[in-house]
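> call design_seq(struct)
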C-alpha cells in the first residue's frame, strides 16, 4: 500500500516491489497496468525507458526520507526520461493519480 502521509490519502492499494536489478530492468515491460516501487541501494539519478510498455504512467522520485522530490507525469510509451534529482525510491503509477505533489511524504508498505 502507498499512502500519502501529507494528505492522508491512499495512492495505491496494490503494487509490486522491485528490489533486485532484474525486476527493476523488466519493470512494466510486457505487463498490464499496475503500480511498481523500486528501491535502490543509494540515491542516484534515475534513467527510464518505456519500450514495450503500452500505456502512459506517472513517475515519482522519492528521497531517502520518502519525500517526493520529482514527478514525471504522463510518461508516454516508447520514450526516454532521466530524473534531474537523485532519488532512492521510484514509484511507477500505472493508474493516473493527481493526489501527489512535490514535497509530499509517502509511506510504502
Amino acid at each position: 500500500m502507498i499512502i500519502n502521509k501529507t494528505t492522508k490519502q491512499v495512492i495505491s492499494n496494490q503494487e509490486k516491489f522491485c528490489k533486485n536489478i532484474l525486476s527493476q530492468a523488466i519493470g512494466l515491460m510486457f505487463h498490464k497496468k499496475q503500480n511498481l516501487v523500486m528501491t535502490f541501494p543509494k540515491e542516484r539519478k534515475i534513467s527510464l525507458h518505456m519500450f514495450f510498455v503500452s500505456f502512459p504512467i506517472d513517475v515519482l522520485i522519492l528521497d531517502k526520507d520518502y519525500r517526493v522530490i520529482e514527478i514525471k507525469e504522463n510518461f508516454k510509451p516508447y520514450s526516454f526520461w532521466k530524473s534531474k534529482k537523485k532519488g532512492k525510491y521510484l514509484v511507477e503509477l500505472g493508474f493516473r493519480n493527481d493526489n501527489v505533489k512535490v514535497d509530499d511524504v509517502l509511506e510504502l508498505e
